[in-house]
Structure to design on (731 residues):
């Protein structure tokens, strides 16, 4: 059997499975409790069928898929209009990537099976005064008798209000190089002193939250790596967001082109201008997907260069905005009616909601502007900005 | 040979002597077997495909080379994909002997009259003065015509781009013998489609190679030029624009390499032509921004930034029109085929 035949066989298999199993009516959920239930069940069913974690290693059920197989799975999930896995997103990408590379065997054994059983994770990196300048975080962790005592505040933590655990970046030491004094902890969100306050977004949703930490205890066993390695480990977490997740999302965007065609058909538009815009966008989507594919192939071959992931992320975020923009311009007036729950770009069935949600990728995970700095300095070798700054100069 | 070997071989050959005349580099290319690489091994070629052609043209674009490799490859592709015939044998023989057979790089279709003769003209024929023959699309299919035939005239047109030599070729009641036709009917369509893909991706390869070089030279200048006591490359206003150009180029490159590697499936050439259009646009943006980022010196002949702008604008004008290609992809999407 050739690779192409094998891909087609998997495509047929997952299509048949989706026909039987893809949840319908999921856009009608009206409460967060329903949303959580639906997401948990859907993830569980996908994991059981072997489609939930195709990017994990082969020792896990449904893991060890080739790149080509992963692409087929993501595309077919999008084509079937199945809901995206938003609730388990951080767990299955960020936590997995971080622990797979830096976690101890004991930590892997303790946490990864829980993810497959439905544990929800969030990421506690950004703070009110440490956004783009992430290394400036001030949340403090002090080690006392084998336990870290953590005090501080985190923000923009996606799904934190539902999370069981948090990937937490905290400061253990003040040092001249602010990146040097950080530690990476696996925080239990039910520990005493953790308060979560959801943030209401422009879509009306509460997709992310603030986390307040007041004397929270984290056992030493829940530290990843050593003190001072926090920044390096966080880079793995962020790189997984900038690179690996975009394999799924760019294939999903490609698999979701039918929604644009549907929008054009629903308003009976087939004039040349519309055809041109559809075709140009479809080509940009194909290019974004090709870039994400190439990135993953390079990573697997050990040829990934610093900053490559930033190229993929900005290609995706700008194309996603263009995708939502075209949909919104083609869509019938209905796009102006409020959708109850949005949760994620590409997904809502309402173009205005998709448009607003597309900011998730141009701001979160390192804004487009920060990626441009990384591309300029790390990929293209342009000089860094002078560090010192004062009002007088 | 892999595409990477080709890329390396071409770059090495060109690196050997940057000051070589076009004729001399062409000799080097013939020596490497580049113009005939798409011919099958039985035909005396290297039996290579689209990806290798893409690699070679990318390398030529990077060095802004003047040699007319793309038309030569189109001729070789015609010989490789045409059905067996006397015309194909004649073409193969000429190519294997190292002759340059050319092909216009703008859309055209010549009428063959009842008398079996063609009149009319084609534009954008690269280095026609050096060619022995030309392949043109006719109402009956692709035809091979010797430029020495009575009634054929060749005239150089002076264009903005100093890195290319373009000619018009006119036909005044030129006899097309039946054995001049390389294919007809369905076969003609198949050959024409293969040529259209190669033409589009070939121009795109040139664009991406040249854009890569334009970016490199621009970065060099930005690091060198100092204002306000620092290299202007340090300013975010500059960095962010260059980063955006890099993203655009990287995406177009990934898509074109991917298509060149996979080959074009079935009847759909429009996705390949649209991908190429994206690459040509990216080169144009790069070259346009490059002039702006160079400031005053950018609009002088002191530096080569204008060569890139002129080549980019020429590449956009060659081949099928980009908006037609995008509209064709849009039509497929709307009909549910994509």
């Amino acid at each position: 059997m050739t690779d192409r035949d094998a891909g087609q066989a998997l495509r047929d298999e997952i299509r048949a499975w989706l026909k039987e199993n893809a949840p319908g009516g999921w856009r009608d959920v009206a409460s967060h409790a329903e949303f959580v239930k639906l997401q948990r069940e859907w993830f569980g069913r996908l994991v059981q069928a072997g489609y939930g974690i195709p990017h994990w290693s082969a020792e896990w059920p449904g893991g060890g898929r080739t790149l080509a197989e992963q692409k087929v799975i993501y595309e077919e999930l999008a084509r079937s209009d199945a809901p995206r896995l938003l609730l388990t997103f951080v767990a299955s990408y960020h936590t997995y990537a971080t622990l797979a590379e830096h976690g101890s065997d004991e930590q892997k054994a303790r946490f990864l099976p829980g993810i497959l059983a439905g544990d929800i994770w969030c990421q506690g990196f950004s703070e009110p005064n440490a956004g783009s300048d992430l290394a400036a975080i001030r949340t403090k962790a002090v080690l006392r008798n084998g336990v870290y005592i953590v005090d501080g505040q985190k923000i923009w933590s996606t799904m934190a209000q539902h999370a069981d655990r948090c990937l937490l970046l905290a400061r253990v030491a003040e040092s001249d190089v602010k990146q040097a004094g950080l530690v990476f902890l696996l925080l239990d969100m039910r520990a005493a002193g953790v308060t979560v306050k959801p943030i209401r977004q422009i879509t009306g949703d509460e997709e992310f939250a603030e986390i307040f930490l007041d004397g929270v205890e984290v056992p030493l066993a829940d530290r990843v790596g050593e003190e001072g390695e926090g920044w390096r480990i966080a880079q793995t977490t962020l790189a997984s967001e900038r690179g690996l997740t975009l394999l799924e999302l760019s294939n999903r965007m490609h698999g979701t082109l039918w929604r644009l065609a549907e929008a054009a058909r629903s308003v009976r538009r087939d004039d040349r201008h519309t055809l041109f815009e559809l075709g140009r966008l479809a080509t940009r989507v194909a290019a974004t997907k090709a870039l994400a594919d190439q990135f993953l192939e390079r990573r697997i071959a050990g040829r990934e260069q610093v900053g490559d992931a930033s190229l993929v992320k900005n290609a995706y975020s700008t194309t996603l905005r263009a995708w939502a923009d075209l949909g919104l311009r083609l869509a019938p007036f209905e796009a102006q009616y409020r959708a109850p729950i949005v949760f994620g770009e590409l997904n809502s069935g309402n173009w205005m909601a998709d448009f607003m949600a597309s900011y998730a990728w141009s701001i979160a995970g390192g804004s487009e502007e920060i990626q441009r700095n990384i591309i300029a300095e790390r990929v293209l070798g342009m000089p860094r900005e002078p560090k010192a700054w004062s009002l007088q100069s | 040979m892999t595409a990477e070997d080709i890329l390396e071989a071409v770059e090495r050959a060109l690196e050997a002597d940057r000051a070589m005349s076009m004729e001399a580099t062409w000799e080097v290319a013939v020596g490497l077997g580049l113009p005939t690489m798409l011919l099958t091994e039985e035909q005396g070629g290297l039996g290579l495909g689209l990806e290798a052609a893409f690699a070679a043209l990318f390398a030529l674009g990077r060095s802004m080379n003047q040699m007319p490799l793309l038309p030569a490859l189109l001729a070789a592709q015609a010989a490789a994909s045409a059905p067996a015939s006397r015309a194909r044998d004649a073409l193969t023989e000429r190519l294997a002997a190292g002759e340059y057979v050319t092909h216009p790089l703008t859309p055209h279709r010549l009428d063959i009259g009842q008398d079996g003769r063609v009149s009319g003209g084609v534009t954008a024929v690269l280095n026609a003065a050096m060619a022995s023959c030309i392949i043109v699309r006719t109402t009956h299919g692709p035809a091979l015509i010797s430029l020495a035939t009575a009634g054929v005239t060749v005239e150089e047109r002076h264009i903005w781009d100093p890195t290319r030599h373009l000619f018009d070729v006119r036909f005044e009641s030129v006899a097309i013998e039946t054995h001049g036709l390389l294919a007809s009917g369905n076969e003609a369509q198949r050959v024409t489609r293969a040529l259209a893909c190669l033409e589009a991706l070939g121009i795109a390869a040139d664009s991406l190679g040249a854009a890569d070089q334009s970016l490199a030279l621009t970065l060099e200048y930005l690091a060198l030029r100092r204002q306000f006591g620092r290299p202007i490359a340090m300013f975010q206003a500059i960095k962010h624009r260059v980063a955006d150009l890099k993203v655009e180029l990287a995406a177009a490159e990934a898509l074109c390499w991917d298509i060149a590697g996979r080959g074009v499936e079935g009847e759909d050439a429009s996705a390949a032509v649209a991908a190429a259009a994206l690459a040509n646009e990216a080169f144009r943006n790069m070259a346009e921004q490059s002039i702006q980022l160079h400031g005053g010196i950018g609009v002088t002949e002191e530096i080569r930034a204008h060569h890139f702008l002129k080549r980019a604008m020429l590449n956009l004008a060659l081949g099928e029109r980009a908006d037609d290609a995008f509209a064709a992809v849009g039509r497929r999407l709307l009909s549910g085929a994509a």
